[in-house]
Amino acid sequence: VFENVSFIGNHVGNIGGVGDGGGLSANLGSAVELTDVVFVGNTAAGDGGGAYFTGAPVLTRCWFEGNSAEWGGGLACVGGWSSPSISEVTLVANSAYAGGGISSRDGAGPVLENVTVVGNVADYGAGIDIAQSSYVTIDNTIVAMNYPDVAIACFLTPAPTLTCCDLFGNAGGDWVGCISDQYGPNGNIWLDPLFCGDANPDAPYALDADSPCTPANSGCGELIGAWPVGCGTTPVESTSWGTIKGMFR
Q1: Pair 99, 124: CB distance under 8 Å
Q2: What percent of the chain has pLDDT over 70?
Q3: Is the backbone of residue 188 left (phi > 0), alpha (psi -120 to 50) or beta?
Q4: Which end of the chain is more exposed for a tag (fewer CB within 10 A), N or C?
Q5: Among residues 97, 224, 96, which one has the least CA distance to residue 162?
Q6: What is the pLDDT of residues 208-226, one digit of tens each?
Q7: Are the C-beta atoms of residues 79 and 27 closer than 8 Å to each other?
Q8: Is residue 136 a contact partner of residue 162, using CB atoms and an 8 Å limit?
Q9: Distance, CA of 7 to CA of 41 (rounded, Å)
Q10: pLDDT for 26-46, tens place per residue?
């Protein structure tokens, strides 16, 4: 169990053909629990710049920023044993060849709920890359402003199931490719999420009160993304970006 832990600036190279999990590697069916954990500036020669999972971890309120790898700049889920539960997680400015924010492949089955994937970089699947018979469920999630590829890419795999999601402003396209038929039904939208940005430096990915991702405005009546309303003087949840930065100053 990891709580209020920071993985900062770690690196794993190619060791015997394996170089996975720059910050954390959890394998062989392991079921680690991570709450309020930060992964910043980690790198991996293979999969999972921030973290690599072949087991069934539970991630809650975690932050991935500036990590890089060949697959899964932020995190990678690999293999049929890999069934992570990922909720209230933010992935920002991570980079990879495939899956700037998240890579899921080789039969993995992660479940994403209230996740924010923004500003990540990859040639394939700028936000999320899904490959080789992965079965991915994505609920109440924002995938926005990732580049230069599409929001979510699929290769030799069933399309993920998206419910109450907002895909917007991704350079290669939003509701395109394997998920093109999911825009509109099930509360899925294509609108600017209206992040607070400089209006709340402590929580830049919190939402403006007019955001289409708030429970009051979303078509599903639920919060979309990892952060609630929080611009200006509006209170936000106890875990803010200011708190996260304080963990590793």
Answers
A1: yes
A2: 92
A3: beta
A4: C
A5: 224
A6: 999 999 999 998 999 999 9
A7: no
A8: no
A9: 8
A10: 998 788 999 999 999 999 999
